Amino acid sequence: MAQTLQLNKPAPEFTLPDGNRTKVNLKDFRGKSVVLAFYPADWSPVCTNELAIIQETLEDIRGYNAEVLAISVDNVWSHKAWAQQQHISFPLLSDFWPHGEVARTYGVFRDEDGISNRALFFIDKSGNLRNTWIAENPAVAPGINIIFDALEVIQGAHQTEARRA
Fold first, then answer.
1. What gap in Å lies between CA 73 and CA 54, rounded to an integer?
2. Dihedral through CA 6, CA 11, CA 15, CA 18, nearest 10?
3. Are 106 and 133 in contact (CB under 8 A)?
4. Angle formed at CA 142 by CA 49 and CA 116, multiple of 5 degrees
5. Can you give the three-state secondary structure of 6-23, one letter per residue?
């Protein structure tokens, strides 16, 4: 059941397997910001380009004390093969079963074709949802600047909070 997500409130928790069938839980990343990247499908051209750009800039993203978790409804074996072929080193999480449950929770599951929409959710080090980007057209990937702009805002907010403490 989809819930209404609110900014500056806790992001919905989840546990999903990666391509090695290792369970990955969102709460394991407390203390770091998380870029949660929903994408429609492994092996598709737009997703391949989107995740390749994220991979190319991964060290810059990590420079913001952030990690990337990518989620699609593909199964773990597809994720494993695609990550190896594309040299993707960040987790690709399988929302395969129950089919699209996490995508539904985040409000980005596409009932008409059984995949998730292309979307980015930005979660701060405390686990709060700070920003979102959801594609109007899933055939169009976000520019990498969207990720860096959101991380700049999150980092700026944390610096302001630290100065107040």
1. 19
2. 100
3. no
4. 80
5. CCCCECCCCEEECCCCCE
Six-digit token pair at 37? 């990247």
The tokens for 163 are: 């100065």
Residue 65: φ, ψ to 5°: 55, 45
Q: Which CATH class is domain 32-164?
A: alpha beta
> For 130-158, what is each residue's pLDDT tens digit?
999 999 888 889 999 999 999 999 988 65
Tell me if 122 sits within 8 A of 130, measured CB to CB. Answer: yes
Q: Does the annotation count 48 as an active-site position?
A: no
35-47 per-position pLDDT tens digit? 999 999 999 999 9
Give me the residue spans of the domains in the chain.
Answer: 32-164
DSSP string of 52-83?
HHHHHTHHHHHTTTEEEEEEESS-HHHHHHHH
Say which of 47, 69, 71, 73 is annotated catalytic. 47
